[in-house]
Amino acid sequence: MNPSTFSDWQARAAALVIEARAFIDGDARDARTGATFACVSPIDGRVLAQVADCGADDVDAAVAAARRAFDAQA
C-alpha cells in the first residue's frame, strides 16, 4: 500500500463531485420549486455545492414513495 501525501488527498478532495439533488423514489431530483441553498465547508467557508432546498411537496413525494416501497415489501 502506498502512503498518500497531503497533496494527494487535496487533489482527490478537489475532484469530488457532490450530488446536490434530493434522492426520492429511486431518482436524484431537484426540489420541485427549483430552490437551492449553499452547502458550506466548516473548514474554510467555501461553498461546496448548491443543494436542493426541498419543501413540503418534496417531503410528501418522498413519504408516498416510502409508503409504496414499504407496502410492496409487506
UniProtKB/TrEMBL annotation:
It comes from the Bacteria. It holds the Pfam family Aldedh. Residues 35-72 form the Aldehyde dehydrogenase domain. GO terms for molecular function: oxidoreductase activity. Keywords: Oxidoreductase. This is Aldehyde dehydrogenase family protein. It comes from Burkholderia territorii.
